[in-house]
């Protein structure tokens, strides 16, 4: 049994003034091409389908087209809500969609939904657990209401009682840790202060594969078969060095699980560049990539953003930073300061901030300014 695992589509997301809907549509079509080539037995969508609980009409249309294309291919879809989704909105029409093998778990109902597929090795049970908080789980376990995220997920999974002799797959959307080990995170992911929303990976021991969503970098946590697929698209510059993919999971006989990361190629990459303005402008032909530029020019640069957009029209962010030594606290004693002239003090301060001394022209200008000041 083979599944394509992806998550964190965040359809409708904007980064600053830029809408990413065209980029998202491009990658969803690429996932459909991968499905045509790999011929999986199902698709696992592990939450955060939309970027907002009330998605835009454009985002809903894009996802509707994607689900329709999967259904036309006869591919079962296993879909849960994430923390960015509205469970009720995502679950709308779910009972009707089952007829097309589109299985949606939007609202938690006391236990994960269970769907069973069969292959030459026997049944594969797929369990769908939407994003779960202790408060959402508590009404279903009044005798022992969970106080932590780990307790909530543990109680929910105990209610579904997976068959230990069969192959069991779980689709979930949580921040999962393994003891003191935490997964790699990005700026675009919201994690509670102190990691209070973590779920320990040990609660998943009964499952042969755990298809996770919530974190944007593809990675394992605890064991190889507990995995984040990562987002198919970069959503912040903290993800600039990530390589996006979808995960192809294969379950043979019980205990034999393997996977491959299938790379995705974006319509526009998200990159960081750094250097003097003139050097960045000479870097090459204009590119449509999303850019975070950091200028290291010592002198003020006039209209830097407009000039950069001639080569990088999708400039998202512009910072200024001297390519100099880092700032360091002055070790000069107060008595030393008192003995030094204003000219010397300013020259030392300038060099400490810029990593280079004043030029002859700058020294002359400073002298003129100080003389005028002393004359007033």
Structure, explained:
With about 375 residues, the chain is α/β, with parallel strands linked by helices. The protein has eleven helices and 19 strands. The strands form five sheets. It has a six-stranded mixed β-sheet with strand order 6-5-4-1-15-16. The chain has a six-stranded mixed β-sheet with strand order 7-8-9-12-14-13, with helices on one face. Strands 17-18-19 form a three-stranded parallel β-sheet. It has three domains: about 1-265, 4-Layer Sandwich (Purple Acid Phosphatase, chain A, domain 2), CATH 3.60.21.10; about 270-320, no CATH class; about 335-375, no CATH class. The protein is elongated, with a radius of gyration of 27 Å. Helix 1 (about 20-40) runs parallel beside helix 2 (about 55-70). Strand 18, helix 8 (about 305-310) and strand 19 (about 315-320) form a beta-alpha-beta unit.
Quick structural gist:
It contains 11 helices and 19 strands. It is an alpha/beta fold and about 375 residues long.
Q: Descriptors for this entry?
A:
Purple Acid Phosphatase, chain A, domain 2; 376 residues; 11 helices; 6-stranded mixed beta sheet; single chain
Q: Layout of SSEs?
A:
Elements: E1 2-6, E2 14-15, E3 18-19, H1 21-38, E4 42-46, H2 57-72, E5 77-80, H3 87-90, H4 94-97, E6 102-105, E7 113-119, E8 122-129, H5 134-137, H6 149-160, E9 167-173, E10 175-177, E11 198-200, E12 209-213, E13 219-221, E14 223-228, E15 245-251, E16 257-263, E17 270-275, H7 277-281, E18 290-295, H8 304-308, E19 315-320, H9 334-339, H10 342-354, H11 360-375
Family: Belongs to the SbcD family.
Protein name: Nuclease SbcCD subunit D
GO molecular function: 3'-5' exonuclease activity; endonuclease activity
């Amino acid at each position: 049994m083979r599944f394509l695992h992806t998550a964190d589509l965040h359809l409708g997301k904007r980064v600053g003034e830029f809408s990413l809907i065209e980029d998202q549509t491009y990658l969803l079509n690429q996932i459909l091409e991968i499905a045509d080539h790999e011929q999986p037995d199902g698709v696992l969508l592990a939450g955060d389908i939309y970027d907002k609980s009330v998605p835009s009409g454009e985002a809903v249309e894009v996802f509707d087209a994607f689900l329709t294309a999967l259904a036309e291919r006869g591919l079962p879809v296993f879909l849960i809500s994430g923390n960015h989704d509205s469970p009720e909105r995502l679950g709308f029409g779910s009972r009707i969609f089952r007829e097309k093998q589109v299985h949606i778990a939007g609202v938690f109902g006391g236990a994960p939904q269970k769907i069973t597929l069969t292959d030459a090795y026997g049944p594969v049970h797929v369990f769908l657990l939407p994003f779960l908080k202790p408060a959402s789980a508590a009404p279903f376990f009044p005798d022992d209401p969970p106080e932590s995220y780990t307790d909530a997920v543990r109680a929910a999974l105990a209610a579904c009682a997976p068959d230990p002799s069969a192959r069991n797959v779980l689709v979930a959307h949580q921040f999962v840790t393994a003891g003191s080990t935490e997964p790699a995170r990005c700026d675009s992911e919201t994690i509670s202060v102190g990691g209070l929303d973590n779920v320990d990976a040990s609660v998943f021991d009964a499952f042969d594969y755990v298809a996770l969503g919530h974190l944007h970098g593809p990675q394992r946590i605890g064991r190889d078969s507990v995995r984040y697929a990562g987002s198919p698209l970069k959503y912040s510059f903290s993800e600039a060095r990530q390589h996006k993919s979808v995960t192809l999971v294969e379950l043979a006989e019980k205990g034999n699980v393997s996977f491959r990361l299938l790379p995705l190629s974006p319509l526009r990459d998200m990159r960081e560049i750094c250097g003097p303005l003139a050097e960045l402008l000479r870097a090459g032909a204009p590119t449509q990539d999303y850019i975070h530029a950091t200028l290291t020019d010592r002198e003020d640069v006039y209209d830097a953003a407009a000039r950069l957009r001639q080569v990088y029209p999708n400039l998202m962010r512009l910072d200024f930073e001297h390519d100099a030594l880092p700032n360091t606290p002055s070790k000069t004693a107060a008595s030393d300061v008192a003995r030094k002239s204003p000219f010397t003090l300013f020259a030392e301060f300038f060099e400490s901030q810029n990593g280079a001394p004043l030029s002859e022209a700058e020294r002359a200008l400073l002298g003129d300014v100080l003389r005028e000041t002393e004359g007033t």
